[in-house]
Amino acid sequence: MFITFEGPEGSGKSSVLNYVYEKLKEKNYKVIKTREPGGTPISEQIRNIILDKSNTALDPKAEALLYAASRRQHLVEKIWPSLKDGYIVLCDRYLDSSLAYQGGARGLGIDEILNINNFATDKTFPDLTILFDIDPKLGLKRIAQNSKREVNRLDLEKLEFHNKVRESFLKLAEIYKDRYHIIDASKPFDTVCKETLTYIENILNK
């Protein structure tokens, strides 16, 4: 099963993913975790270009194409082989992030970004997408208070950009409601972790 964790900056999705991963491993599920952009050596090199704070001149379309290229390599080297071997794949961001960030917030168009990614992914969609929904003001406040978290190029965008990201994710949750599940990420961390794990286990045990 291919499960993606999505959300605006500071939603806590990465920390929740790590929690879910450890709990599923404890219960002897065959599970791996990975992330985007990145997940493989080549994809991680592309990640470094995309998120480098000094790359302020990166064109939005070039950005979108780099994400798609990284995603293709990630699928070929890691996600597809893991799914074929019977693993549950937990992925920190995937296609929906491109649709929300580049399609929605950058204004390139969700359909246009979807077309690029359909080519890159051979139309590989997640089985389940958990959306960690949070007010961007709170998310950015969390980032500012977390000295251990990397601050990347996207974190430095204005609040209006992050509001558009959230709006785009909520729109995607409507479009793809069969695979989306929304979690209120403003709740206490322990609550969010337990709610997420419970939901995923219920799906896995169906």
Mean pLDDT: 94
Q: How large is the count of helical segments?
A: 8
Report, as a whole number of angstroms, the end-to-end distance.
12 Å
User: How many DSSP E strands?
Assistant: 5
Give a topology summary:
Blueprint (H helix, E strand, L loop, with lengths): L1 E5 L6 H14 L4 E5 L5 H11 L8 H25 L3 E5 L2 H11 L4 H12 L6 E6 L2 H10 L13 H17 L4 E5 L4 H16 L2
Parallel strand pairs: 1-3, 1-4, 2-3, 4-5
Helix pairs in contact: 1-8, 2-3, 3-5, 4-5, 4-7
Protein model, in words:
The protein is built from eight helices and five strands, in the order βαβααβααβααβα. The protein is an alpha/beta fold. A five-stranded parallel beta sheet has the order 2-3-1-4-5, sandwiched between helices. α1 (13-26) packs across α8 (189-204).
In brief:
By secondary structure, the chain is α/β, with parallel strands linked by helices. The chain is 56% helix and 13% strand.
Keywords:
single chain; 206 residues; alpha/beta; five-stranded parallel beta sheet
